[in-house]
Design a protein that fits this description.
There is one protein chain. The chain is mostly helical and 91 residues long. The chain is built from 4 helices and no strands.
């Protein structure tokens, strides 16, 4: 069964995104991010994704999987970076 965001979640999401955008260092080129994340899409599908959002092409459960993959990938990069920084301090 596909999980749909409730009305409460729908209301908070734009607020969270707008606050995140205002944070220093949190700037994302939306088109580049979507093109990289959904790199299997080309042409009209990519244009639709950028214009109408990923929910226009994918079910919520699939987008949650993609989001989890992106978060895990970023966490791995940060973990490696912090580990290397720690090793540098020790040496």
């Amino acid at each position: 069964m596909e999980r749909r965001m409730g009305e409460e979640e729908d209301q908070f999401l734009p607020e969270i995104v707008s606050k995140a955008i205002k944070l220093p260092g949190v700037k994302v080129d939306r088109m580049a991010f979507l093109a990289k994340t959904f790199n299997h899409l080309k042409g009209t599908e990519l244009a639709q994704l950028v214009d109408q959002g990923p929910q226009s092409l994918y079910k919520t459960k699939d987008l949650i999987k993609v989001a989890n993959r992106v978060v895990l990938n970023d966490m791995e990069k940060n973990t490696v970076f912090l580990l290397l920084q720690g090793c540098r301090l020790i040496l």
